[in-house]
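Sanity check record (used in CI):
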Amino acid sequence: MVTLRDSENLPALLQREGIDITMFTDWFQLNKHDTTARTLTYAEIPKYYVRHEKPKLGPQEFSELMTVNKRIFSSFKEACFAYGLLNDDKEWTHAISKAKLLLARNPRVVKQKWERFVRFPGSTTTYPKLVTNMDNCLIREALDFDMNQSKSRHQQLHSLLNPEQHLIYEHVIQSLHNQEGQFYFVYGSGRTGKTFLYKTIIAKLRSEKMIVFAVASLAPMMQKYAFEALDKTLRDILGYKNPEKRSMIFGGLAVLLGGDFQKYLPVIPKGKRADVVQSCINISELWKYGKVFTLTQSMRVNKYYENREIETQKHDFNKWVLAIGDGTVPEKTYPDFTTRQHDDEYLKERAILTSRNDDADVINAYMFKKLGGDSVAYNSADKIYKGSTNTLDQHNLYPVEFLNTLNFPSMPPHALCLKKELPIMLLRNVNLRKGLCNGTRLIITDLFDYLSKWVEAKALPTNDARVVCKFLKSLFARFGAPRAIISDRGTHFCNDQFAKVMQKYGVTHRLSTAYHPQTSGQVEVSNRGLKRILERTIGENRASWSDKLDDALWAFRTAYKTPIGCTPYKLVYGKACHLPIELEHKAYWALKQANFDPIITGDHRKVQLNELNELRDHAYENSLIYKAKTKRLHDSKIKNRVFNIGDRVLLFNSRLKIFSGKLKSRWNGPFTITRVFPYGTVELSQANGPNFKVNGHRVKHYFGGNVPHLDCPDCEDSQFCHSSRVSHPQLHLGIRYPNLID
Ligand SMILES: Nc1ncnc2c1ncn2[C@@H]1O[C@H](COP(=O)(O)OP(=O)(O)OP(=O)(O)O)[C@@H](O)[C@H]1O
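Expected output for ATP-dependent DNA helicase:
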């Protein structure tokens, strides 16, 4: 094959050396001197030969290709027939003669076979005359109806048309008679009689021997491109003889479409909402030429009398039925929701079902807004299950912020917003494959805060009932009475006086059991934290622990709590509260920045910075003096920590408890930051091991000095749980405050 580009000059190309040698002519050359090659077909040659070899035997010239059994044919085609490579028309002839025979016996079957035969590709070349003499079978099919039957059908249907249908009918028929070639669209919700109207129009036209192509309905489901292609094709075909038809919509043919956009939309595989909308017929250029009619009477609801009056009591119901799908579903399904929301029967007898979760979310959000009261958000704690992937970068690939955006079917969203008195449905046994889904409808009666981790503690001289009750009353005065209190079974909680106080304040008293330690889990965790702080602060003189309790509590409330993602103080008061030592860090940093000699002033601080927890514990002693000052200073000056590549940092090792002794620091390093990722993750390098990633919360800047060095194999647990936003204090110390479901 010789290819010729537009830019190439044909005569010059023909002069090119070697142009007359092709693979095909090479095959001749091969056959001239290779007897084996002569036994092979042209297609088989590449199996045994590569082309750069000199050809030997085979056909040596074109005339040889036309020779079959020593007979020379006048064309390649004839030679091919003689080789048996092409079929001839014998089978067609044979079929036709057979059809002739059949025709005598069973004309209907023959007619069908005949049409199939004539439509078969290839037959056109064999019997061009035959085809031109015949009509298009589609046209014949379209005309293959009983006119009288159509007439009577038309009469019957026409008499039943309602006023809206009648109006459309008149328009369409008139424009057809006037050969205006309009494009109509009948818009109507389900059961408004669209199909009934089409049938009437079709019966009318067929009764007048006109051709109607009734194509399947559901125009809104078809993409606009299908109609645009039809428009162009009709303009081309009909404009061939009448050029003025090229400028007419659908080439001047009348086209009637109809459907319900609320029910059907085009299906775009993997398409987004915008893609679907963009492919609708009403976005097409054609739409502006169309005339749109609307049917508004549901024929399922209404009954028309002969005088075309509608039964009056069904007016409202008709309106209601049609309004469904107009964006008013919640209003229509739950009328007077705000006044009737407490009526169980009202809630029981209605529900909105949607086929898409997105729609359910929209409806829920709408109804949620209608319900008064404060909303409480319960956030999920998303975390990658490490066993499911070996990827090193999994925390960067799937940061928690990203996981939180995912919405899976049959799982609640990351932020579950609830309100008191909200009706909810508890779904169980959800197994879509088996069609299983049991739902129990519930109403939220209260929402609780388990999360602030606020701790109230007091050193009591004795733990008898009187002292405990006094303490409780002081708490009630500050925070209000709780709904319930959980305590252990100590005698100071289980006595008459305590019971009386509980009764007076309307508090339910619940006892935890030794067999279910989880009941007091939160309290135990908080107590442990407090004890640890106290152990560090009291030094050798353990008797002074009650003096240090206030400071320990302050430290506890201002310490970062992984489960809540901030400090209890911030959670309760909405702003940060810092310990004095943190301001000293800032002061040190400021000294360094201001170019003072940092060596002398810094030496003392380095020890403190490298052992932050211990320094904090020392600082608690000074806390009373610094309290007021630090808060003011902090709120105005504290900045976020920013880590850059190359920074030297210390890592807080929360897991490894290999440093025994209370004065040992749980910070180790220093490490160097090699990468900084979005969402606060940093990659650290270490001298004797691979680089690893940790959450920025776990590192702090290193300013110098000695720190116990440790390789860090435990570097993966860098994600923090994200939890709810809450605003009420919760008390711990043997009791849990202020919440518990009765
Ligand atoms: N004018 C009429 N008189 C009597 N019955 C009618 C009339 N119009 C429609 N109907 C009847 O109402 C029912 C619904 O009509 P039809 O199927 O034409 O509605 P549709 O709009 O095409 O519905 P869908 O969009 O759901 O397909 C049918 O049983 C039809 O025979």
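The pocket of adenosine-5'-triphosphate is lined by residues 160-162, 165, 188, 190-196, 260, 299, 304 (CB under 6 Å). If this sentence no longer matches the regenerated tokens, the check is flagged for review.
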